[in-house]
């Protein structure tokens, strides 16, 4: 009887010692990401074997700057059923993931996190730290953050390069409070969207863009197959609107990750 | 009669000018018109010549074409419910255009787009004439139109949904409702020549259509109702509706409303109704296109929405009159 008590107190002491060595919450071991942007941050930060699956979009070289890395993971197409069958202990989704899928996963007892899309550089910093905390990789996150800050400082140009317009399919432009707007500003351009009080992503009639007389027009590349939505990017008035026209808006502009520094450099 | 034509021409001229002066940029009237004619430096000539001028020209041409074909089809089929949009001719043209775009044919040759739309329209109008010629009743005609519209709409939606382009599926609404936003002079040059040819063919049927009002036997006795009339109408309609739809989408009800509104002034004489309907169609579409820019300036409201709001109640009214035993 007495020996038994002593043994259990030894075990308790051992258990306390082990618990003190671990972080407060054990790091998740089976992580599934189902959003193109969280896919990239998770791939940058996860420990080997920790991340099971990324969204199938992350493997598409037209959308994802990390398509090669993503090929090493199981792709998922964002359906609750397939994700549940992977037995994850953490699912990272986006704010735009269908709520029905998320509530289904939560009902099944899976921890679901939905980090918001990062629309400026401070938000990218926040998201790097958040992803590090979610994955229990705080140290890796600190390193990544330091590298990002150095890259960003090296890529940023003084704001004296003139006025630029961002234009994409269906006549949409991106204002100052968007990631694309932040990239443009960091590259040293004034965004003409500000002339019309556009801070977010909004439609800008073609003739207003022409009237703003930008020094540079930044558009993206067209998708395969044709569409009338993209036809506006080949409009003759657009060709005459700005002396410099570049089609550089691409996959580096989509997500708020440390890779946005490449988007800034593409405007050199 | 002459007064009516002068009034319609003036109306079209005023609406054309208003269309040129309507836009989000709010340019000064005199300056923008001067820059339109004489050019100059800066952005105003670009806005006037590359953005607003093609839009106004297409509004005029597409409206005139739809009014003209509506009046001609009504005369030939002797049925006031005939109209290229309702009968699925525009829908078939849109299907042809979508096929040319999604197969990449329109990238290989620019003319493939209006040509494919033209073939689609020709298939639609040919099928209608076979199914419900001058002797077919209203019911046959409308049902044939419903079937052709449904088939063309489903084909368009299927092709756009299968496209690898993420924007394509959202454009089903453009092909079904039509819009003139952000068209360029390229579209004008693609659409205008075949439409002028088609208008010539349709206007050459004026005497035959007049004779047809006396009855088919009388027209045949005059030697005016032969296969040549049918072919000129089919080809003329396809040449107008095909290219118009290829650049502006399927816009319904113009060809229904305009001849109906003008008939009380003109009577049922197709020879007069045809040119008057062309002018009336141009006025209606220019007005609708000004309307979409004023009602919700920051959205691309589809033209077909406005024409349907005007046209569908009239269509119901015409059906009501058929139902109550009166001749439509």
From TrEMBL, chain A:
Which positions carry the signal peptide feature in this UniProt record? Answer: 1-26
Q: Which UniProt keywords apply?
A: Signal
Task: Please state every residue range assigned to the domain named Fe/B12 periplasmic-binding.
Answer: 30-268
Matching entries from Pfam families are given as: Peripla_BP_2
Q: What is this protein called?
A: ABC transporter substrate-binding protein
Taxonomic lineage is:
Bacteria, Pseudomonadati, Pseudomonadota, Alphaproteobacteria, Rhodobacterales
UniProtKB/TrEMBL annotation, chain B:
Q: Which InterPro entries does the record match to this protein?
A: ABC_BtuC-like, ABC_transptr_permease_BtuC
Keyword annotations? Cell membrane, Membrane, Transmembrane, Transmembrane helix, Transport
Protein's membrane topology: Multi-pass membrane protein
What family, per the record? Answer: Belongs to the binding-protein-dependent transport system permease family. FecCD subfamily.
Q: Which domain of life is it from?
A: Bacteria
UniProt lineage: Bacteria, Pseudomonadati, Pseudomonadota, Alphaproteobacteria, Rhodobacterales
Spell out the subcellular localization from the entry. Cell membrane
Show the stretches that span the lipid bilayer.
55-73, 85-105, 111-132, 139-160, 184-203, 233-258, 278-296, 303-320
The protein, known as: Iron ABC transporter permease
Entries under SUPFAM superfamilies matching the protein: ABC transporter involved in vitamin B12 uptake, BtuC (SSF81345)
